Amino acid sequence: MLVTLRDAPADAEIISHQLLLRGGFIKRVTSGIYAYMPLLLKVIKKITSIVQEELEAKGCLETLLPQLHPAEIWKQSGRWDGYTAGEGIMFHLTDRQDRELGLGPTHEEVITRIAGDILQSYKQLPINLYQIQTKFRDEIRPRFGLMRSREFIMKDAYSFHANEQSLKSTYLEMNEAYERIFKRCGLEIVAVDADSGAIGGAESREFMVTAEAGEDLILLTPDKKYAANQEKASSFPSKAGALEKGEEKLIKTKGQTTIEDLCLNQNFSPDQVVKVIILLAILDNNIHQPVLISIRGDQELNEVKLINIISKHLNTSVISLSTVSIKDLRKEGLTDIPFGYIGPDLKDSSLDKSPKWKHSFIRFVDHTAADLESFICGANVIDYHKIFVTWSSLGEVAKVVDIRKAIPGDISLHDKTQKLFAKRGIEIGHIFQLGRKYSSSLDASFTNESGRQEPFWMGCYGIGISRLAQAAVEQNHDENGIIWPLSIAPFEVIIVIANVKDEAQFKLAYEIYFELKEHGVDVLIDDREERAGVKFKDADLIGIPWKVIAGRDSSSRKVELAHRTTKTSKSLGSKEAIKELVSEISKYKKSLLP
After folding, report:
1. Is residue 27 part of a domain?
2. What is the pLDDT of residues 1-46, one digit of tens each?
3. Most buried residue among 136, 395, 464, 584 by CB atoms closer than 10 A?
4. What's this model's pTM, rounded to 2 decimal places?
5. 470 and 582 assigned to the same domain
């Protein structure tokens, strides 16, 4: 069944989404939900087979976990509210007995509960269990086809260990397995340091397919020895312009509530200003915690870094973090806070009138601001700033942290001779060292060599199978359509019969078809009663790596052999064409062996 479209649907924003729809690989059912049609299902099965082979080579065991999860284990881990309230991504429901359930977006809780029941002794460890199944996430804005859909196919693996060293060893083995998987899938990837996000853990790494349509910004050094997602990346910023020494004083800055206005009217440079931002963190115990941060005026706040720092500082989870506006302050009755003129030394007492917020800030200073010897900042008085301010003159200095957003052009922390540059990437895999986060909260323990009970050390390893399929298209296409890597192409060869009413063409095409199948080649034959031009365009659109055309020379047993990637073609006898195809496909597969 091959049903292609000439034009891309209007709601398909990126090329891979357009091509998958036009090629008949997927069919939209509703927002963020797609049917995988026969061609894509073949791609999915080939990717799945590669994943299974590589994981089983590392000793992983395949399982299948339930998709419906009881709420109580998510509440026990502390993630239920974060995943279901507000902008949470878990689909959740209540059954006929009024029990709360969730459709699994990930399976840490379920697998940890099972491991706690069946793994009793250190002698059973380490063990690495994986599954490949459908996951569900209630994306706020589903987009880009399979890139950010609400139902998708994922491989997730979970390892259990008696000690941290064993975890780190498996983490490195899974890193190797992932590199092999993506190489065999024909993808160019960049492995980057990453934030662990809602999954948590001490260390994590993302695997990115580089593509302009990628949602993630990757920062790299030219030698590729350092690469990190922007959420995680650290760097040296450009040097601040020195502010001349002087005696601290007030300056009138009426109406100058932004860095831009202040610098324009006072002839300052943004890197001489300390910008102060009030944010509100809602914690997992529903405490509304105000946060006051100071950062150099030319820098942007990295909220992911700040969330992690707050979580660590308070030893709790941050459900949400948002910048506070003047409207929010008025809503809380905090009309005395001089919005637009706030300084790093804003008093905690300014929060006393809030009925809901805690009445003291937690305070952080980004190192870019802390390094300034003299600066301009808000005076905590409407229409006034202070100039020639020093941190010592402000009194107690808040904790100095890295909460700035690294940007292209920054100097690498790892090699000061190199500047970071940016690429966009599509995340297709992520590995985590979870540590004991889940085993501790879910009381999953084993008996160690000394006979004592202790929580498991855990790792978690995910690959977006359906996302990988679309990412391959985003990285491998041209103006005519998809160019599938041979290893995951729905078919390795397509035979096109130019004119199905020509007996010689029809007969020769089927002879080649059956002989290729005898050689183990995955081959498709296009014997539709369509014009030859339509078939040629469709073959290019769906991206089969090799094309055999049975045309006018079929009576002399000659065919045209075309390679989709190189766009080269030649006329060969049918036997020669078969021999070359079998040889080239075999050579490609051998090139992927260790």
Report:
1. no
2. 678 888 888 888 899 999 999 999 999 999 999 999 999 999 999 9
3. 464
4. 0.87
5. no
